[in-house]
Structures are given as C-alpha cells and as structure tokens.
Amino acid sequence: MNDLKTGMIFDIERCSMYDGPGIRTTVFLKGCPLSCKWCHNPESQRPLPELAFYSEKCVRCGKCAKICPDVHKLSARTHKVHYQNCKSCGRCAKVCPVHALKLIGKTYQIKEVMDILKKDIPYFRTAGGGLTVSGGEPFSQYIFLKELLQYAKAEDIHTCIETSGFTTREKIDGVLPYTDLFLFDYKVTSPELHRQFTGVDNHIILENFRYLYSCGQAIILRCPIIPGYNDTEDHFRGICDMEKQYPDLAGIEIMPYHSLGKEKAAAVNKPYEVTAPTADDTVKNMWKKQLRTLGASDALLESF
Amino acid sequence: MFTNSEKIQHMMHFTKTYEENSDNIYLREARCLEVQFSFLMLPLRPEDLFVGRKTELPIGFWAQNSYGTVGYYCDVPSLLALKEDSTLSEKELLAIDYLIRFWKGKTTDEKIHAQYTPEQKKLLSHGDFTVESGIGWPLYRMSGAQMNPSKLLSKGICGIIKEADELRSQNPDFYDAVKAVMQTLQTICLRYREEILDKIKLCTDTKRHQELTAMADNLDKIAYHTPKSFWQAAQLSYLFYLLSGTYNYGRMDEYLGSYYTHDLDTGVMTETMGLSLLTSLWQLIIERHNIFDGRIILGGKDRKNLEDADRFALAAMETSRRTKDILPQLTLRCYSGMNEALYQKALEVIGEGTTFPMLYNDDVNIPAVANAFSLPMEVAQEYVPFGCGEYVIYNKSFGTPSGAINFLQGLNTMIYDGEKNYLEECPDFESFYEVYLSNMQQIIELLALQERQEYDVCAADAPYLFFSILFDDCLKRSKPVFAGGVRYLEGTLEGYGNTNTADSLTAIKKYVYDEKRISPQTMAEALKHNFAGYEEIQTLLLAAPKYGNDDDTADSMAIRFHEDISNIIRNSAQKANLHSYLMVVINNHMNTTFGMTTGASADGRPGYSYMANANNPTGGMDTNGITAMLNSLVKLTPSLHAGSVQNMRFSKEMFTRLLPKTKGLLATYFKNGGAQSMITVLNRGDLERAMEEPEKYQNLIVRVGGFSARFVELSKNDQKELLSRNTY
User: Fold this and answer.
1) Per-residue pLDDT, B699
2) Is there a contact between A97 and B539 if contact means CB atoms under 8 Å apart?
3) Nearest of B722, B726, B718, B713 to residue B687 by alpha carbon
4) Which run of H or of E encompasses B306?
C-alpha cells in the first residue's frame, strides 16, 4: 500500500446524501469505458483532464483569449472554444472571473483524499455513512480504487462502489475484501439494446453481478430509466425478474431520467442525443403502474 | 387610539409627576409608572384570551424602548413631528416646546453621555450607525431581562406587597416603591376586569361570553390571590413581563408547566383549550413586535418539574407550528438523555419551515458558560439566551449588550481608512496583527467602561422596580437591580464582522507578507477604490482560503482571531468593575447595517455590502458542503464568550425523506461541540430567491432525479425546471 499513489478525480462531494446509506463523501473518478447515451456525467468519460466551457455564464471579457488565443476565439457576440487545440493546462479557467471555464479532473494522492475523508468520520459513525467511490467507472482506475478502499477500511470507514459492473472478475476479487456495498447499475435488459445505448455488451456485467451476488456481497441494484430508451415493458419485466431472482439484494432503486447531462455534454464538447425532458410525476406514475402490474415490490415502487 | 392632544396632555402629566418626585428616585419611578400605565394600556381585542397590551409615547420610562434609549427618555424628533398636527392648539404647541426644554439634560441617555471621558468622546462613535461608519458604538438600553416569575406566581401580588412590608425598615423608600408598583399592577388587573365586564354586557355570542366571564374572574382572582389555574398563572406572568418592559419571557415550561398539566389532568382544561390559550398568548407577543427579542425558553436538564415542563414544551412547540410567525423566539435547550419526544417534535416543527425552536446544546453550553462567566457549573446550568442569543443566568444575572464593535472597520482603518497604512509600517504579519489587536483593545476597554457607566447612571436614576422585584437577590439585599441588587452584573459587547476580519487577515498574511504578491500600497489602493480597476486583486483575494470550508489555513486564523479578541474583551471586565464582560457573536442585522458603511475589505468583499453573519462563513464562501461548514463552526470555542448564533438552512427534503440522515448530521455536530443551531428549512419561494442571490444559498441541496445537486451549481435552466415542480 502506498498513500502517495495518485488518481484522476473530477469531484469530491462531502455530505453526499444519495450515494449509499447515511452521510457520505463521494469521490468521483474520471474515465469510463461505457458511453451511455444519457450519461449524466459526460465530463467523467475521458480519463484525462479536460476543459469545460459553460457558455451561458460567459461575459466575453476576453481574459481567456489573452492566455490561450488558439483555444478561445471571441467576437462581440460569440465565444468559440477550439477544444482540439486545448492542452488542458487550466490557466484560462483560473483567470475566468465568472467561472464559465473549468478544468475537469485533478490528480489527487490517496493521502489527500484520506485527509478529506477523515474530517467527516464522526458524521459517518453517527449517521451510518462512509466513502462512496463513483465515476466515471471506478474500476477504470483499479489500482487507485483498491488502495483507496484499503486505506478507508484501515480507518474503519464504510465503503461503497458505484459501478456499471463493466470490469473483470480479478478486479472485483481485488476490491471485495475492502468493499461493504455495491451500487450496481442495471441499465438495459436486452443485450442488443445494451450494446446500442451504452456501447458495451451486458454479458460481462451480468456475470459480474451474479458473481458478486453469489459471494453474498451487499448490492443495491440501481436502474436508470430513460424515456424513449429503456422505459420498455421488456426492461421493466427484466427489473422485476431481477428482484424475484435475487431476493437477497439490499435494494433496487429506480433512477428516473433527468436532463442534466445535456448541458454538461455541451460544455465538454460531447454529443448528446436524448431529447426527452426530465421525467416528471406523470411519467413516473405511469412507470410505477407498469412495474406494479409486472409484480414489482412496494419497496421498489417507493424508491422513486 | 389616542389623539395627539391626549398624548400631549399625558406627557405633561408624566413630566409633572417626574418633577414633583425629583428628590426620591424610588417614589419617582413608582409614580411615573403609575401615570404611564394609567394611559398607555390598550383594550383587549375581540379574540384575545389574555389582557395586556400597551403603547409607547415619545416621553416615558422604559428599560428598553423602540427609540433605542434607556430609562427616562424624551424623543425630540417624535415630539417635533407631533407639531405638524394642524388641529393642535397654540397652548399644546407651546407644551411640546416646554417638554423638549424640560427634558434637556434630564434623560438617562444624556446623563450617561455626561459621564464620558475625553477619550471615550474621541474614540467611540456617537452618531447614527445606520449611516455613519465607526468602530465602537455605545448602545442605550437595559435589555434582555430574563426573569423567573415563579415567586410572583407562588406569592401573588399581595404576597409581594407583604414581603415588601416585612422588609420595609431596611430601605423604606425602596420597599414603598415596590409596594406602589405592585398596587399599580393590581389596579391594572381590576381596570381590565371592569373593561371586560362592560364587554360582557354587550356580548351576544355564547362562547365569547363564557370566555369573557372566565377572563374577568381570572383578573379578580390574580389581583388578590395566588393564581390557581394555568390561565390565571399565564395571565399574571405575562402582565408582569409587559409592565416590566422586558421582551423576554423566561423559562416558560418550568414556571407554567405544572399549572398546565394539573389543569389538563384534572379536567379543568382540555388540550384544545390549552392550545387556544397559548395561541392567544403568542398573539400578544407577536403584537409587541420586537423581533430581536421575544424569547421563550424551553428544555434544559436542570428544570425541577421535568415531566410537567416537557408536556408544556410540546404544547408550546405545537402552538408555534400552528402560528408560523417570527415570534415568539422559541428556544429549546437540548441535552443528552432528554425526552426524545421533545427533540422529535422540535425537528418536526423546524421541518415545516417554522425556524423554531432554536436548538441549544446544554452539554456544550453549560461548561462553556461556567468558563466564560467564571461561575460554578450548578449556576452555569441556569443559563438562558435572550434577545438575539446572549446568555445570562436566569434571574441571577443581567448582561445587556450596551455596545457594538465593528472589527472589520477597525481593520480597514489600519490599511486605508485611517491615518496611515500599517501594512507599510509593519515588517511582518505578527507585528501588524499585534497593532490591530492593541487598537481594538483600546476601544474595547472604553466600551467596557461605558457599560459600567450606563449601569451606574441607570442605578442613580431609578431602581427599575419590576426587575428589582423578581431578580435574585434584590429584595433580600434591599438594593435595586443595578445598585448592587442583582447577583451578577455582567456586560456584553456585540462583535460584528468577525468572519470577514479573519478571512481578511488570512489574505493579508498570505499575499502581503508570506507570498508578497500584493504590495501594501496596492492593497490599500485596491480597497480604497473598492476594487475598481483592481478586479484582478479582488479575484485573488476572493480565491484566498476562507473560513467555513474545514480548511486549516483559514480556520486556524479564524480560531486565532476569535480567541484573541474574546480574551481581550473578557479581560476588560475587571477594569470596568463588572462581574464579566464578554463578546457576543449574535445575529441581529447589524452585520448588514455596519457592512453598508464599511468599505471594501481584504477578504475580497466589495465595499458597502453586508458582512458575514455572526461567526458563520461569508455567504457563498463555504463551498465544501455542510459537514465542512459545521466542522469549521465547532472550531471556534464557545467557552470564551456569551453566545453566538449558528444559522443553518436546509432544503425541505432534509427534513422529510432524509430526516434520519439529517438527525445524524445534527447529532454529530452537537457531539463535536456545536453550541446551537438555528435552522431554516426552505420552500418554493426560496428557490426563486436562490436564483437571484445564489451566493447565499450554497448549501441548498435539491433532489433532481436519482441524484442530488447543490441548487446553485445547476444551470439556470435546470433551476427553472426544479422551480416548475410542486413543492410538497
């Protein structure tokens, strides 16, 4: 173990209330092998630091262009960012007075992350929380992930991984002794659609899931539902089947779509094709009705 | 209500009474109060279940009044305004002139001014702090009396009169005056009774008829006997508080709890009736409209009638939940081992956006008070906050904050708003900081002396009879409250700009001294020009570490300044001959008032804008989440001052779906040393305000879909989307 080991992190959120039980500190690792159409953290996909530009905040002061004229081209009305010229040095973001520019991704040593984690240990203890490693896909930085979990466990901190499940058996075995809970994504039931919407096959994912389950590992299955993509009867049935087939799951949660990824994708110059609005109560109630018909439990229905 | 002619006539009467009794301060106050109350008491309103309403005139006697003066007062601008009434006769206009002439030099405020040393006149600020800038400001009031009415309830009016009779020989003038004001109280009860009897004659509504009959009966009883029911006890204590001039209502669960439960358990009163009575009482407190006071204290591990008091406390919280007003300022003293139902109820009420009760942590506060006030634990456990959050010892100490200090203005005068730029003079941060503290010390000592002078002048001017009747040990010692009567005569000083000062010091140390990135001259010029043309300097200053993020650099400076300044104030007590003199880091809106007259500061704060509230982080500068903010808060020890306020705002969801987690959050904060918590739970309208002023809503957490986000970090469109949803 070496706490000087570094990882590429794009956010650390203290007092996170939704990434597992209790009060948690969530560490978001950069880099993901999937490319889900609805990704709500598009800035997490690339493994290296990158520039984000939030055009609506820009006041076209031109300070960034002075630093990096090859990247920032300004006219009276427009500010065009030439991402291909960007070296991700982050100097432009430092001078931007309105925070329209931001360098996404920063190198942290494990020690630095642990120092932040330790500050909230009393909260973890009282409210039953701990560390959640999220992403991106945490397994994409396996060595860092494993050692971070090890250090956290050495401090008796509850640990949780939020994963797509797209990784290898070896890596899962590697983190198992140091992981208390998995938040495991279940995105699409149909293998073909899974490939189409996320860019990868779900065969490995399901295999990993079954393996984890067979190990008696605590798992909460998390199911993002995207209108027009996976809000199908087939997938809803798949979710209900999972519930029946794996009665010892720590929970199944439906995560209704929200459109936040759209603007973030634009900020990092990534395409984004979902056009549906954030799921409102009418949509959610419709899903609940369908799921109920298919035999979903009350707990599942109350999860959203 | 009253015509201006009637007001003038009354003020003439009051003035004449004052003049005729000039040779005896005891009798003078008693007579003046008799005259004052004969005129100022207002009739009951159609829904009222209690009597006791009053108004104020530009001339009178109060410990604390709406004109910001103390004792005998004469508000000249209000008198001059009366002259604009064209219906007044020539004689009445002349009467106004006479009144202004008469009171010149006789008001308590002016007598206090007359005591000031040349140094106080020069170095303290004496103008209007809402428009002028300054550092140390004397205030004029004897506010925050937190009295225990139990003695009054157990003895009754007649019992107090009897006590005064028995003690009379020790100080006849004092006890005669005590008797006289108690008789005045009796008269007021009877006069209200007459008013109600008249109303009964005209009342056709059966229910109201019954209520009025009961109220008349109550007043008849309490005029001559000890109160026997909850209704009577609440009536008598409220009336006493009102006449005394205090706006704080003591530990109500303790002094009313046993009456309340007795009446419920014996069927004298139903729970519905109990809540109606409390609601009516709350309405009278609301009408007094002193939003900075109005404290009702509940809870506390030292209450004698724990079970009864807890039952009352639940009813009081329920009343506030239903009332949803800014008053009364319900305060709950919490402690490990307390009745869980009470805490649960408190969170339920807070969760509805009530903002009350405010939660105080006995486990931290009792030892802190013991240390700060140099008192044994058994005395410290009787601490109660009053007003905006200053601690006093219930019925045993008086601790008016008769001064306010603007630390940030003090710092600015050392850089650009004074005679010279000490950044140039001082070779290192330590020497700069030392000069700053010594400048502050000079002003603080003058303010401590001012506090003593204010007490002494008040004592020489009047016995403050209502306070002297209840406060330990005034009657026993035969001494009025401020003349050696009250057991502990304390003083407090309101500190403002603490956080901005600490953050400014952090930035100065970092940029001017350690890194030398900003020269002393540039710093002074940038601040002087309110950053116009120095935008980059401001960006740099804003990027310096800030208190409230659990950041060691910023927080260690905040701790250092907090402890140094608290100690300077605390150590000024002896010189001023006060039992204690302590800083209060409380929360009225003077952080804004002072901020508006304070130029740009080295923390990057633009000039003439609000300063951070109490010792909370500067709005928008706490960006590491609520646990980081709470961790920073608990680093500032409460054991050196007389109270601070910790304001927290939570989203509604934190008190519904996430309540178990929020309970864990608060429990940890209290366990880590959190002294108290004032919680706002936000509603829909708040999101709109958060869009307009995002810097103030950094910790507002919202549920977007399957995840959460800080509202202010969402794009405008997402914010609008959230706004479009119903708030449940």
Assistant:
1) 59
2) yes
3) B722
4) helix B306-323
The Cα-based distances of A125 to A129, B478, B667 in angstroms read 7, 55, 11
Contact criterion met (CB below 8 Å) for B142 and B458: yes
Residues B276 and B327 in one domain: yes
Domain assignment present for B508: yes
Please judge whether A263 and B535 are an interchain contact, meaning their C-beta atoms are less than 8 angstroms apart: no
Q: Where are the domains of chain A?
A: 6-47+105-301, 52-103
> In chain B, which residue's Cα lies nearest the Cα of A100?
B715
**Predicted local distance difference test score (pLDDT) of residue A13:** 93
Chain B residues in contact with chain A using a Cβ-Cβ cutoff of 8 Å: 535, 539, 550, 624-628, 631, 654, 658, 660-661, 663-665, 667-668, 671-672, 701, 703-709, 714-718, 721, 725
- What does chain B come to in residues? 728
pLDDT digits (tens, 9 = 90+) for B363-410: 999 999 999 999 999 999 999 999 889 999 999 999 988 899 999 999
Kindly report the nearest CA distance between residue A304 and chain B, in angstroms: 8
Please indicate, yes or no, whether residues B241 and B251 belong to a single structural domain of this protein: no
Look at residue B219 and tell me if it is in a domain. Answer: yes
Q: Are B544 and B460 members of one domain?
A: yes
Q: What is the CB-side half-sphere exposure of residue B582 using CA atoms within 13 A? A: 28
Taking each helix axis as running N to C, give the angle between helix A110-118 and helix A142-154, from 0 to 180 degrees, rounded to the nearest 10. Answer: 40
For A52-103, CATH gives 3.30.70.20
Instruction: Examine residue B584 and state whether it is found in any structural domain, yes or no.
Output: yes
Q: Which residues, 6+ apart, have CB-to-CB distance to B652 below 8 Å?
A: B351, B353, B681, B682, B683, B727
CATH number for domain A6-47+105-301, candidates 3.40.50.2300, 3.30.70.1350, 3.20.20.70, 2.60.40.10: 3.20.20.70
Among candidates B624, B668, B705 on the partner chain, residue whose Cβ is nearest the Cβ of A122:
B668
Distance from CA of B697 to the nearest CA of A (A): 16
B337 and B278 assigned to the same domain:
yes
Distance from CA of A143 to the nearest CA of B (A): 27
Nearest residue of B to residue A303, measured between CA atoms: B706
Residues paired with residue A252 on neighbouring β-strands, in sequence order: A221
| B590 and B470 fall within a common domain | yes
CB B496 within 8 A of CB B404: yes
For residues B594 and B556, state if they share a domain.
Answer: yes
What is the residue-level pLDDT of chain A in tens, covering all 304 positions?
A: 788 899 999 999 999 988 999 999 999 999 999 999 999 999 999 999 999 999 988 989 899 999 999 999 998 889 999 999 999 999 999 888 788 999 999 999 999 999 999 999 999 999 999 999 999 999 999 999 999 999 999 999 999 999 999 999 999 999 999 999 999 999 999 999 999 999 999 999 999 999 999 999 999 999 999 999 999 999 999 999 999 999 999 999 999 999 989 999 999 999 999 999 999 999 999 999 999 999 999 999 999 9
Q: Are residues B215 and B78 in the same domain?
A: no
Residue B294 lies in a domain: yes
Contact A255 B705 (CB under 8 A): yes
Cβ–Cβ under 8 Å, residues B255 and B150: yes
Give the total residue count for chain A: 304
Domain that holds residue B47: 4-106
Interface of A to B at Cβ within 8 Å reads 13-19, 22-23, 40, 54, 56, 95, 97, 119-120, 122-123, 125-129, 222, 224, 253-260, 263, 277-281, 304
Domain count, chain B: 5
The last residue of one of the domains, among B193, B212, B245, is B245
Cβ-based contacts under 8 A for chains A and B: 98
Same domain flag for B210 and B358: no
In this prediction, residue B720 has a pLDDT band, given cuts at 50, 70 and 90, of low
Give all strands (DSSP E) within B51-147, no chain letters. Answer: 53-54, 59-62, 71-74, 136-138
The verdict on a CB contact (< 8 Å) between A304 and B706 is yes
Contact state of B706 with A126 under an 8 Å Cβ cutoff: no
Query: Are B626 and A15 within 8 A, CB to CB?
Result: yes
